[in-house]
Write a structure and sequence with these properties.
mainly alpha, 7 helices
Length: 162
Amino acid sequence: MEKKFLHIIGENQGIIHKVCNMYCDAEEDRHDLFQEIVAQLWKSFPTFRNESKVTTWMYRVGLNTAITTFKKSKRRPDRNWLSYENFQVADENHEAETEESIKMLHRAVAQLTGIEKSIILLFLENKKYEEIAEITGITQNYVRVKMNRIKKKLKILMDKEE
């Protein structure tokens, strides 16, 4: 069982890193969250029944762990969460205007709630509403409603910055 778990983690650790980067600013916090997510995955591994994809299960456990940690950190103001520096831009030759727009978007995403960050992360990962619903534990219809609200909220936050 341990070998199978380690294989799954090794094959899909990118999911955990994405979640950690979305919710944590400092390297130490990302490392701590990574360890916490792996611990929660291990804890829930014996009850995983392959009724969903492994990646869906990993996203669900990872996001729930991150949201719980994020909520706890709100009570500890010494922690800094999510800044636009965590996002890597693949193309180094993009225009300064585009770079500023990306930074503005990341600052806006930083102001979203935990569940909103989860939904936008999965949306940006090109997950379908059905899979987002399965991972987050909310209905597909509510995912659509939340996505519309998140888009409007991001637009408002970005318009304020201009």
